[in-house]
Amino acid sequence: LAISLGPDIRVNCISPGWIDVRHSPLRPTDHAQHPVGRVGQSEDIAALAAFLLSAEAGFITGQNFIVDGGMTRKMIYRE
Question: What pTM value is reported for the model?
């Protein structure tokens, strides 16, 4: 899409991991599973979306942003 719609339209993807949208009580184990030490919040996704919509991100297109607190890497590489 980035190629088809560019240069006037930028196309990026946000791929969220575990995001606590219910704001329910979570166990310490839930947070400890993530390399950043916590489960994601909707604000984490919103902050990236706001950045991608800003002029500062004007040279970014055709990208997939994984926002999962490092879980993808943790699952691939054993400790």
Answer: 0.83
